[in-house]
């Protein structure tokens, strides 16, 4: 299947997931796939897009509200597109070591992926800055601050999507 433009949409509160979305978009473009990265809250139509990558931060076991809202808004048309989903959030290296289904909060991403017949989903590590503001982030930052996003793993996942999208259908 050859796709014109891929939408990489995200829900992010502190910018870490938005940055993952940018890395995915950069990787797709490096693989000669046209990609547009946008906040999931801003997207009003999927008309211009041939495929969708949707991500959201995981907070207290919930997928970011903008990612959930995106799925609600487009649940009828998403199954007409190739779709991949991701969550980001574990503040340790567990996302790189264990089955995504075993990550706290992954259930929400898995259910959304099943709802729209997504081709795949995964969970990436998260990022929490030491100077995070607000409760509970500031309390968590005292013990769990750090960047647990594996850029190489994220880029490899995006490159696999580009390969899938660039492969003509079998005859």
From TrEMBL:
Residues 6-162 form the Flavodoxin-like domain. GO terms for biological process: heme biosynthetic process. It holds the Pfam family Flavodoxin_5. SUPFAM superfamilies: Flavoproteins. GO terms for molecular function: FMN binding; menaquinone-dependent protoporphyrinogen oxidase activity. PANTHER family: PROTOPORPHYRINOGEN IX DEHYDROGENASE [MENAQUINONE], PROTOPORPHYRINOGEN IX DEHYDROGENASE [QUINONE]. This is Flavodoxin. It comes from Nocardia otitidiscaviarum.
